[in-house]
Amino acid sequence: MKRYLLTASILLSAASAAAAGGKDTITYDCAMKVFTNNGWIAPRVLVMWDEENQSAQIYDGYIHKLVGEPIPAKVSPRNEISYNLDWRVNNIPVSNARMTLDGLYSAVLNTKQNTLSIRGVITGVANQPRGKGKCIVKKG
């Protein structure tokens, strides 16, 4: 598992450099403090924010492994400095069982404080994993 996280971290570094390409794109590179020991929240999450269209794409270690590229998030304004982001990741492998589960994720991106708070709902799991992160901003 640690090897996977290290590899994902290296790949995320490369992806964050590539993702910061558009002139209106802002990449929020968020180091997450995870409040679960089940691993459903990645320790590092990238939000590629398109200022012009007010749209977002999400990329983390799970998405990298399962999809291979950033996935779109549904965006809705929360207030003048924050946005609600929603996305789905299917077929997340369960480390202690031979099965996969789907994850529905909701997050709040605060563009003034550069923070990201994530909450997940994993099908078939009673607990709701969550995490909060401070983000480094990279303008493209």
User: Number of helical runs?
Assistant: 2
> What percentage of the residues does DSSP assign to strands (E)?
over 45%
Oligomer: single chain
Q: Total number of β-strand segments?
A: 8
Q: Which stretches of 5+ consecutive residues score pLDDT under 50?
A: 16-21
Query: How can the largest sheet be summarized?
Result: 8 strands, antiparallel, barrel
Q: From N to C, what is the helix and strand string? A: HEEEHEEEEE
What Rg do the Cα atoms give?
14 Å
Between the first and last Cα atoms, what is the distance in angstroms?
32 Å
Shape designation: globular
Task: Please give a structural write-up.
- There is one protein chain.
- The protein has 140 residues and is an alpha+beta fold.
- It is built from 2 helices and 8 strands; from the N terminus they run H-E-E-E-H-E-E-E-E-E.
- It has helices at residues 2-19, 61-66, and strands at 25-34, 44-50, 55-60, 71-77, 82-93, 100-110, 115-122, 130-139.
- An 8-stranded antiparallel β-barrel has the order 1-2-3-4-5-6-7-8.
- A hairpin with a 7-residue loop joins strand 7 (115-122) and strand 8.
- The radius of gyration is 14 Å and the shape is globular.
- The chain starts with a helix and ends with a strand.
- The model is unreliable at 16-21 (pLDDT under 50).
